[in-house]
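Supplementary Text 2. Reproducibility record for the structural model of the 401-residue chain.

All settings were left at their defaults, and a single model was retained for analysis rather than an ensemble. We include the record here because the model underlies the residue-level annotations in Supplementary Table 4.
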Amino acid sequence: MIFKYKAIDSAGQSKEGTIEAVSVEVAISSLQKRDLVLSNISPIEEKSLLERKISLFDRISTKDVVILSRQMATLFEAQVSALRVFELLSIQAEKPALRTKLAEVASDLQSGNTISEALGKHPDVFSDFYVNMVRSGEESGKLDQTLLYLADYLDRTHEVTSKVKGALVYPAFIVFTFIAVMVLMLTVVIPKISGILTDSGQEIPIYTRVVLGVSNFFVDYGVFILVILVVGGFFFWRYTRTESGQYSVARFKISIPAVQVLYRKLYLSRIADNMNVMLLSGIPIVRGLELTSKIVDNKVFEDILKKATEDVKTGSSISDAMMRSGEIPGIFIAMIKIGEETGQLGNILKTLAAFYRREVVNAIDTIVGLIEPIMIVFLGFGVAFLLASVLIPIYNISSAM
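Retained model, structure tokens:
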């Protein structure tokens, strides 16, 4: 539960805030340990359904975390204390959700937690990767540099991921529009015209009969089709939440003929960039592989990295461990091997990350350039076929009169 409190500190100043605890007794005990004299404490009521819906628009995005990381780096570089940093950031945060999170982090710091421990209590905002990077910065005394590395990394990741999503949104919109237009014509327009064609007594072309048959099928069984699609979609969603479902979807992504190159290069860019940032921050390579496997966002590559981690633990090199998967390109493995042999693995990973980021952008431009005209032609042909199937017989009927 979350409790809101008002108190007076040892200096006689009033303080307000929130604290999370399993009970009011635990909350009071925790606050008293901070030398606070409580004047009021009460639980915060659960949000109503309307408030929960509104909070969906208050989600903390990757861009918010990027900006936050840069602000933190600047303040730490200016020798501002950790507690004061998060108090200042919580005051100036625009989003209420982020403001609450930062206030809770400041409260945990006041209780004696380290920054990484306090951030780790909010996994919905700060991932394991982020928390481990901060922990490494704390241990090395280079927290400001680590936060800048994090901000740059998250910014690059956000930019590339946004480009990929943007490239796939347009084709998806075209497909959705095409299906919507086809269904509308088959269920609304064509049934109104079919009576004219059948009552005319003239022979109906085969392609028109096919269209009329499909139209009748949608009109008679459209509700059942919709129910089947909804139920099937639900079970498919449930399947994607399972281990085998996640693996199947991940395998499908890197096997689709049109976009498999794009996805593969995206994941390779993410692997190289992530490992490079962690090496710069002083995180051991084994821990780096473990964390990379959690954020690569593809079950196939996640399993590859997990197996590579186990192999490295037993004395294998990273390049040899990755080679056993059969999924990592030879050039990627060869570059890793060169980095291991020359002691320049960090620079090699940085080069690989930059190379694959460019390749992702080039792949996006190529896919969009190919898909746009194909989809437009396909949509135009489909609509033209339906119109021709109806208008040509009507023209023949009017000519015969």
